């Protein structure tokens, strides 16, 4: 209901900094995620971006805002693909976010039925964001793999041309030495070998 969505938005906006702090604390403590994060990046950029992401995701009032939020999810998926962030880490992060927001909602004073609706709504919305991010991630990863393969094929062709020229040069060099040896009447066993 609109009142539950409004309550969720209020809780998320009020606690977005706390949720972001817990999220990055857990991710920085994760051995798999550590190569992608630094304390400096978390404090200067990522925490603020996470707070904005939460507030944008849970503050959509109409289809236009929701479309903008979905576009943001696609951009995030592209960024994750560019840095080659494994999808399982994104899923792990989504699980952390859902748990933290659910804990904040539990302390918000919502009635039991509204709390259940709120937690289900949060789970569904974060799952939807993850789905769109993952779709963009896969598309970007596929594009990058095609570009890598095209470059590899191109470089093989370049290396083949270079190798062909080396062989041609070696053959001409041998031919010159062979003709010189034949013209100077060297015995057959002293002729240069190919």
Question: pLDDT average, as an integer?
Answer: 88
* Percent helix range: over 70%
Number of separate helices: 5
What is the C-alpha radius of gyration, as a whole number of Å? 30 Å
Largest sheet: none
Approximately what portion of the residues adopt beta-strand conformation? under 5%
Distance between the first and last residues' Cα? 85 Å
Layout: helices, strands, pairs:
Blueprint (H helix, E strand, L loop, with lengths): L1 H27 L10 H19 L5 H20 L4 H20 L5 H72 L11
Notable characteristics:
194 residues; mainly alpha
General description of the model:
With 194 residues, the chain is mainly α. Helices cover 81% and strands 0% of the residues. The chain is built from five helices and no strands. It has helices at residues 2-28, 39-57, 63-82, 87-106, 112-183. Helix 3 (63-82) runs parallel beside helix 5 (112-183). It is rod-shaped. The model has no long low-confidence stretch (mean pLDDT 88).
Task: Summarize this entry quickly.
The protein is mainly α and 194 residues long. The chain has five helices and no strands.
